[in-house]
Amino acid sequence: MIRVLLVDDQPLLRGGFRALLDLEDDIEVVAEGGDGAEGLALCREHLPDVALIDIRMPVLDGIEATRRIVADPALARVRVVILTNYGMDEYVFKALRAGAAGFLVKDIVPEDLLHSVRVAARGDALLAPSITRKLIDRYVAHPPGGGNGSGLEELTAREREAVVLVARGLSNDQIADRMVISPMTAKTHVNRAMTKLYARDRAQLVILAYESGLVTPRGS
């Protein structure tokens, strides 16, 4: 059973999401909160698999709530998915940097919401290649300071190659084609790189690739 926490300051939206999720045999909404501080407390109380958290709320916003959840070892199992009205904006970018597994626009169709909850519960990032490219565009517009490359020395040559391709917006299937390997092997390279670099998911891997200098906006 996938345990879900809903955190949004709009009761009507929470109610709609809950009604939809509770219809599924493999999903259970364990609690609801109206702001980030309440959501953080409910995370600690219920230990959900997935926390759907609004990005803009009173008391504590979704970015800071995400940061605190990710920083708490007791909440390591919780996958934060950000809810937004606006798509990929500066707030969503900050939430991904804080450790969110991905984001959903609130007008998402029901089938996509259910799929996204299941994807997040499996530990996969809700980060399609198109979103990865938007992250890259953000770095082109606002390149980060040079990183120290910490952890890169632990990667094998093939893992480094896979990380570069992830950071360029390629899916696992596309990485497999480029590296002339199977999709499963491509996924293994990516997963091992995430483990070695302590990246929670693909979004964090993209950010680390740029911040470490492994990839630059012009390519590497």
Automatic annotation (TrEMBL):
Q: Looking at the keywords, is Transcription regulation present? A: yes
Q: Which CDD domains match?
A: LuxR_C_like, REC_NarL-like
Q: One Pfam annotation, family name?
A: Response_reg
Residues of the HTH luxR-type domain? 148-213
Q: List residues, modification 4-aspartylphosphate.
A: D54
Q: Which SMART domains match?
A: HTH_LUXR, REC
Q: What is the protein name for this chain?
A: DNA-binding NarL/FixJ family response regulator
